[in-house]
Write a structure and sequence with these properties.
globular, four-stranded antiparallel sheet, mainly beta, 51 residues, 0% helix, binds zinc ion, 59% strand
Length: 51
């Protein structure tokens, strides 16, 4: 199982999104809940890591 490293565009926090499937690489950013901001924000997709 791999995970995505996402960076919140508002607080700059980098965190791991564990998913069982790779998101499409062509998405440069996604709208997702940020655990630090406590709300949905845009996230930059840093990398996908295979474990
Ligand atoms: Zn944030």
């Amino acid at each position: 199982m791999g995970y995505w490293i996402l960076q919140c565009s508002e607080c700059r926090l980098e965190w791991k999104l564990y998913v069982s499937f790779p998101l499409k690489k062509e998405f440069s950013r996604i709208y997702h809940y940020c655990p630090n901001c406590n709300k949905n924000t845009f996230h930059r997709i840093i990398d996908y890591v295979e474990e």
